[in-house]
Design brief:
CATH class of the largest domain in chain B: Alpha Beta
Helix content of chain A: 10-25%
Oligomer: heterodimer
CATH architecture of the largest domain in chain B: 3-Layer(aba) Sandwich
Number of helices of chain A: 7
Largest interface: A-B, 41 and 40 residues
Helix content of chain B: 40-55%
Strand order of the largest sheet of chain A: 2-1-5-3-4
Distance between the termini of chain A: 38 Å
CATH superfamily of the largest domain in chain B: NADH-ubiquinone oxidoreductase 51kDa subunit
Radius of gyration of chain A: 18 Å
Number of domains of chain A: 3
Largest sheet of chain B: 6 strands, mixed
Number of helices of chain B: 25
Order of helices and strands of chain A: EEHEEEHHEEHEEEHHH
Strand content of chain A: 15-25%
Distance between the termini of chain B: 47 Å
Structural class of chain B: alpha/beta
Number of strands of chain A: 10
Shape of chain B: globular
Strand order of the largest sheet of chain B: 5-11-10-14-12-13
């Protein structure tokens, strides 16, 4: 392959095939760009904005920007790190995230990215929204307090499970996850434990019932290694 | 109205489907019809639409929750919305709204117990030159004063339907103060279309290119290039969309263009269709302008009868094109072209990822040209008069003229058209503005100018503008403008991306903290910090531009915030003593010992 196409991520050369995004190519090459709403198995979304990088002086989201030959992608400047930290803090104050009481602690990507970014406090004033918990399903619980509107479950249910159990409704700060059923409850939907959508939640919003702390706190994926090293693939393999 | 019966709902849904079809794209139009009839979208209507359109329940519910004019719970028989733009407020709208609420004994935002009336603020309704303005069941009422509010209260109490209200209430005037290149000759004889058919589409496109016309919505993309890209895109279908979702606070020029120059706008769309090879077009009309619907439908009907729309236009075999009007339902973000296309498809108006751009993948994935009302009007004139005629005005980079909507502290608010390159001071002199402190150019998302900048010129290379021009005299507190815009953006953020969804709410709260006299320098820095994050990381132009007004006010009118600071360093956003009110209530105490000593 003489016409191998590459771009630079920091000082690392990343090969890509035409059509790949910067994120696709970076993850395939084992390089990490922080992200929450992105997942290589699903169509790019571009909503969390954590994967912003600078290319030719412009800020773009790596998960939606096409890779191009010879470009230099800056993902680690102080400015970009500061902005990512602020975005993470925004997500923390928008919902109700209480890590010590969350079953996902240690395997949660929001938490892991916060550690990675050196976040010690939420910085902004909490909104403390009143949100409900949907425990109507026999096998799963949805805690809307923790939903970060990444739409991974929306995409998984629609594109992989062929069900369309989830959607986003409302607007602005009132945006929320909707469930396709006559009552709006998960228990009355076609959601099943075997759905791909049951495993994609990057935070603790969609959790299985009757099972908790199988892997003790302290021994979980991101307890052991930072997310920048292990990315998120291991979570999907059930190691979380 | 009480909760409608299942038969009533089924009847209306069937009627709406008969009228508008059963494609999922028509969903929003059905929902608007249902809202109008039943004052809300009842659960039974959702179920009926699920069955008829074959769309998911969540898709319907997500749309209802997204658009400000759709509701899942009943509004009053009289749904009264006060335009809440800063210019309306400067004309006393807040006081009038309180007055009406008192007269009707209703709290803003809640429907009166008898179901008679709801009163609420709403984003700018585009009547800034004749405000304060309201919408009554979607129809515009202008020039509100205490007397008119009194009459309205009586009419509501008596249950008199708005169709029987005094016609003068609903009178909307053009206020065309300063016509220029495009507006001085209102009557079109279809000359542009004639030239196009005579010389051919290539020559017509070349003429538009020669004119140097750039999009009038504010972004200024070269119109001929947009049309060319769409024309070259491979597809069996192409679409022409006129963006009449004039939602930028302070702008109302499209209202006047659609009222008095509709033929030129439609002619521009038709010419575009011929050039790019489109057979269908849409005029996306903002819900606030629903009162124009009948007028526009009649113009479309007349043009069909004249052979200017429909099959074989002007006798040209195979030149088939028609235009349908789609109503919006209260969402500023739909003014962004990709959000507008989503809305045309009946969905929530969330901006798409770009690329692909609408010229290659727009409506239903087909190549689509989306242009502003004024752009289509200009294109029709250019085809009629030639590109050189258009170029005779303006600057090198900004050819032609710009139509402005002037409002605020001026003697003669209304529509002004100037050659590009005209200084702000010229506009101020012509509209009778005195002792001007600030001008907000291009709406809430635009730029705040202070006096030393009034010699700057309206042009893409200096002050790009979509046309909104709001004037503030020295008696105004600029923080009032900032509060108004901060609330506006929080209300209008679509919620898709984190920085805008959360950032607009953080900014709103910080601005309120300043207004409440609780803020410190730290909070001003926080505003700059949040603003910078939004500018850098937001998904679309709404989030990028939402902090503009605040950041420029902090820079140019620092005293408006500084003089309200409580302490120079840091102060908490809450009042500790007030926070204990619940505890006092539970304990049944309110004596001195139950309050924090020395705290305020």
């Amino acid at each position: 392959m003489s016409a191998r196409k590459t771009f630079l991520l920091g000082d690392r050369e990343i090969p890509f095939t035409p059509g790949q995004t910067i994120m696709d190519a970076a993850l395939a090459a084992g390089a990490y760009i922080p992200h929450l709403c992105h997942h290589p198995d699903f169509s790019p979304h571009g909503s969390c904005r954590l994967c912003i990088v600078k290319v030719r002086g412009r800020t773009v989201s790596a998960c939606t920007a096409p890779a191009a030959d010879g470009i230099e992608v800056n993902s680690s400047s102080q400015e970009i790190q500061d902005t990512r930290r602020a975005i993470l803090q925004m997500l923390f104050v928008e919902g109700n995230h209480v890590c010590p009481g969350c079953e996902k602690s240690g395997a949660c990507r929001l938490q892991a990215l916060a550690y990675e970014a050196g976040i010690l406090d939420p910085h902004f004033t909490h909104f403390f929204p009143r949100r409900e918990v949907d425990a109507s399903h026999p096998g799963f619980i949805i805690d809307f307090n923790r939903c970060i509107l990444c739409e991974l479950c929306v995409r998984a249910s629609r594109d992989r499970d062929g069900k369309g159990v989830f959607a986003i409704g409302g607007r602005g700060l009132d945006s929320r996850l909707l469930i396709e059923s006559p009552t709006g409850k998960l228990g009355d939907s076609s959601f099943a434990a075997t759905d791909v959508a049951a495993t994609v939640c990057p935070v603790g919003a969609i959790l299985p019932k009757h099972r908790g702390y199988d892997v003790p706190i302290g021994e979980r994926l991101y307890d052991r290694e930072p997310i920048s090293r292990v990315s998120d693939s291991a979570v999907e393999k059930g190691e979380g | 109205m009480s909760i409608p019966s299942a038969e009533q709902v089924a009847g209306l849904v069937a009627e709406s489907i008969h009228q508008r079809g059963r494609e999922p794209e028509s969903l929003l139009q059905h929902l608007i019809a249902i809202q109008q009839k039943f004052n809300h979208v009842p659960e039974s209507a959702v179920e009926a639409l699920v069955g008829e359109l074959g769309v998911a329940r969540t898709r319907i519910k997500s749309a209802v929750a997204f658009y400000a004019f759709l509701h899942d719970r009943p509004r009053g028989e009289f749904d009264i919305l006060f335009s809440d733009n800063i210019t309306d407020q400067m004309l006393g709208s807040r006081r009038l709204m309180r007055l009406l609420c008192e007269r009707l004994d209703v709290e803003p935002g809640t429907t009166r117990a008898d179901g008679r009336v709801t009163v609420d603020p709403t984003s700018c309704t585009g009547m800034c030159d004749q405000g304060p303005a309201i919408l009554v069941n979607g129809m515009a009422v202008t020039r509100l004063d205490a007397q008119r509010v009194d009459r309205i209260a009586d009419l509501v109490q008596a249950g008199t339907e708005p169709v029987h209200w005094p016609g003068d209430f609903f009178r909307v005037v053009d206020n065309l103060r300063h016509p220029g290149l495009l507006l001085s000759a209102p009557d079109t004889q279809g000359g542009g279309l004639g030239t196009l058919l005579e010389k051919g589409a290539d020559a017509a496109l070349a003429e538009v290119e020669r004119s140097g016309l750039r999009g009038r919505g504010g972004a200024g993309f070269t119109t001929a290039l947009k049309w060319k890209l769409c024309r070259q895109a491979r597809s069996a279908e192409r679409y022409v969309v006129c963006n009449a979702d004039e939602g930028e606070p302070g702008t109302f020029k499209d209202r006047v263009l659609l009222t008095s120059y509709a033929d030129l706008v439609l002619e521009g769309m038709t010419a575009c269709a011929r050039i790019i090879g489109a057979r269908r077009g849409f005029l996306y009309l903002r819900g606030e302008y629903r009162y124009l619907l009948r007028h526009l439908e009649s113009v479309l009907e007349r043009r069909r009868a004249q052979g200017l729309l429909g099959r074989d236009i002007r006798g040209e075999r195979g030149f088939d094109f028609d235009i349908a009007i789609h109503l919006g339902a209260g969402a500023y973000v739909c003014g962004e072209e990709s959000a507008l296309i989503e809305s045309l498809e009946g969905k929530r108006g969330v901006t798409r990822k770009r690329p692909p751009f609408p010229v290659t993948s727009g409506y239903l994935g087909h190549p689509t040209v989306v242009n502003n009302v004024e752009t289509f009007l200009a294109a029709a004139r250019i085809l009629e008069q030639g590109g050189a005629w258009f170029r005779s005005e303006g600057t090198d980079k900004s050819a032609g003229s710009k139509i402005l909507s002037v409002s605020g502290d001026v003697d003669r608010p209304g529509i002004y058209e100037y050659p590009f390159g005209t200084p702000v001071s010229q506009v101020l002199a012509d509209c009778g503005a005195e002792h001007t402190q600030a001008v907000q150019v291009s709406g809430a998302a635009g730029e705040t100018l202070s006096a030393p900048e009034f010699e700057r010129v309206l042009a893409f290379e200096d002050l790009p503008t979509a046309g909104s021009f709001m004037v503030f005299h020295h008696g105004r507190d600029m923080l009032d403008m900032v509060r108004n815009f901060a609330h506006f953006f929080q209300h209008e953020s679509c919620g898709f991306c984190t920085p805008c969804r959360v950032g607009t709410a953080l900014l709103r709260d910080l601005v309120e903290k300043v207004a409440a006299g609780q803020a410190s320098d730290y909070d001003l820095d926080e505003m700059r910090h949040v603003g910078a994050v939004m500018r850098q990381a937001s998904h679309c132009g709404l989030g990028h531009s939402a902090p503009n007004h605040l950041l420029s006010t902090l820079e140019k009118f620092p005293e408006s915030c500084r003089r309200r600071l409580r302490s120079p360093d840091y102060s908490p956003s809450f009042d500790l003593d007030a926070a204990l009110a619940d505890a006092r209530a539970i304990a049944g105490r309110d004596d001195a010992g139950a309050h924090l000593e020395g705290e305020t």
